[in-house]
Amino acid sequence: MDAQSAEQAELNSKQREKIAHENNKLHKRLCRQVGQAIGDFNMIEDGDKVMVCLSGGKDSYALLDILLTLRERAPIHFDIVAVNLDQKQPNFPAHILPAYLEKLGVAFHIENQDTYSIVKRLIPEGKTTCSLCSRLRRGILYRVANELGCNKIALGHHRDDILETFFLNMFFGGKLKGMPAKLQSDDGKHIVIRPMAYVKEEDSTRYAEVKQFPIIPCDLCGSQENLQRKQIKGLMREWEKKHPGRVESIFSALSTVVPSHLMDPNMFGFKDLKADGVASPLGDIAFDDEPCSTPTSMPGTIVLQNG
Questions:
Q1: How far is residue 38 from each of residues 1, 43, 65, 307, measured CA to CA in Å?
Q2: Spatial distance between the Cα atoms of 261 and 300, rounded to a whole number of angstroms
Q3: Which phi and psi angles does 127 have, rounded to 5°?
Q4: Is the dihedral of CA 238, 210, 134, 148 positive or negative?
Q5: If you ran DSSP here, which 8-state letter would residue 89 be given?
Q6: FRET pair for 208, CA 20 to 30 Å: which of 20, 30, 90, 281?
Q7: Rounded Cα–Cα distance for residues 149 and 81 (Å)
Q8: Mean pLDDT for the stretch of residues 54-73
């Protein structure tokens, strides 16, 4: 090997080491963020049986992978079963997920239900199918969770999904409503959890590339896109590009709520509010120079998660 070849080989070796180092940092970061979310919201407890909804997309693969890692390290015992709903979409590669899960050695269940035909029959051509598809899928997965004896249902939504849903509800639905990290299912029988709540989408995307997950695209509606969500995604990208840190600040705001400074009479007793002569940090600060500098530890602030 001549000197030039040796030098190139050394550079290639250093580049591989750098990539491996960055990949390891990514894995550690995801484990830390998922573990923190689980702890902050008490998502998983000793003896739980967690149904991980595996769609074949990057986020659900990442969720399953990280939960399996954390299960090995956890001081408690909990079971995991991966569940995929085969909706009988044309050309759906039904062999991919069973082969992957068998190789992984994880318990799994494939539920076969032809929701594709129902959606196509009920939704006019060109209209968004996501809403009906989601409702059908939710009902089926609740039933499967019952049959499998699972008390927790884990979904792969990440930080950006949560923010996008918040803005969709605010801009198009007139509600301050997001996508919580933990909630009771519609039928009241399960707890739905989102352990990836603190994970950025860009990290989930890169992790999928590193792990080379066998991604299965959702083509139930062909190339159809949710245009409203697409608008929100573009808005968030623009914000982050022009004002780095803004998106993170908005996400933090979802976790620190001051009901007395909003306008929902069901959340705060405005009708019964009277001046009692006692100074309060929750008093009106409309004439202050910095009305946005409300300390997060002030009384009356609802802190939903830790740092």
A1: 53, 5, 15, 13
A2: 10
A3: -85, 155
A4: negative
A5: -
A6: 90
A7: 10
A8: 96
Which phi and psi angles does 215 have, rounded to 5°?
Answer: -65, 135
Q: In the prediction, which pLDDT does 217 show?
A: 77
Contact 152, 44 (CB under 8 A): yes
**CA separation for the pair 265, 177 (Å, rounded):** 16
Ordered alpha helix ranges (H), the chain: 3-41, 58-73, 96-104, 115-122, 130-148, 159-173, 201-211, 227-242, 246-253
Q: Is the pLDDT of residue 307 over 50?
A: no
Spatial contact of 259 and 268, defined as CB atoms under 8 Å apart: yes
The yes-or-no verdict on residue 306 having pLDDT over 50 is no
Phi, psi values for residue 53, rounded to 5°: -80, 110
Task: Spell out the residues 6+ positions from residue 208 whose beta carbon is closer than 8 angstroms to its own.
Answer: 58, 61, 62, 215
**pTM, full prediction:** 0.83
Residue 9, both tokens = 């080989």
- C-alpha distance from residue 262 to each of 87, 167, 247, 278, 280 (Å): 42, 17, 21, 21, 17
Rounded Cα gap, residues 103 and 111, in angstroms: 19
In this structure, are residues 53 and 60 in contact, taking their beta carbons and an 8 Å threshold?
yes
Looking from the CA of 288 toward its CB, the CA atoms found within 13 Å total 10
The pLDDT tens digits for 259-289 are: 888 999 999 999 998 888 888 776 766 555 5
Residues 6+ apart with CB under 8 A from 256: 296, 301, 302, 303, 304
Residue type, 233: K
Contact assessment for residue 144 and residue 111, using Cβ atoms and an 8 Å cutoff: yes
At residue 168's C-alpha, the angle toward residues 167 and 172, to 5°, is: 115
Amino acid at position 108, single letter: F
